[in-house]
């Protein structure tokens, strides 16, 4: 699992670098608006407003109120007063400042989009718990039954069940940063698959006397 984990980490880093360096800021903004329409179409306007309110609250507290956004902005881009005080060099590096401003906007959009998807995951969490708890119970009961008879508990099924859960969650994490509009149904599908795999993995734990 170590190699796939490092591979996913590198893919995530590359994805973020590509978004920050190459993807226009308004691209992610359009994806956010399109995804918001998908949320409303599938889950209703009330859920859409709740997700947007939650994401804006997280964004305000972590990016704006913390001073992070302002600090990054004025680290890369001088103020108007600083520019005017640089006599003879007012327009020097203007292309860089424009590019940096676009990258800062892209960073803000990435963070906000990630928060909207985390809020969507939080909205689905109670329903996923309804599936997760029975899956765990079924897996535990299957494991206990196998302890009392000669049913085979497959370590291969257990190992690959755990691995697939990890792959699904890591893939979902990468998708959370993708600058495209994701259908909100993707999250419950992934989580339902994880619930089924949890039950299968638990049901094939090695027997212990």
Automatic annotation (TrEMBL):
<feature type="transmembrane region" description="Helical">
    <location>
        <begin position="6"/>
        <end position="23"/>
    </location>
</feature>
<keyword id="KW-1133">Transmembrane helix</keyword>
<feature type="transmembrane region" description="Helical">
    <location>
        <begin position="121"/>
        <end position="139"/>
    </location>
</feature>
<keyword id="KW-0472">Membrane</keyword>
<protein>
    <submittedName>
        <fullName>DUF4400 domain-containing protein</fullName>
    </submittedName>
</protein>
<feature type="transmembrane region" description="Helical">
    <location>
        <begin position="185"/>
        <end position="205"/>
    </location>
</feature>
<keyword id="KW-0812">Transmembrane</keyword>
<feature type="transmembrane region" description="Helical">
    <location>
        <begin position="160"/>
        <end position="179"/>
    </location>
</feature>
<dbReference type="Pfam" id="PF14348">
    <property type="entry name" value="DtrJ-like"/>
</dbReference>
<dbReference type="InterPro" id="IPR022266">
    <property type="entry name" value="DtrJ-like"/>
</dbReference>
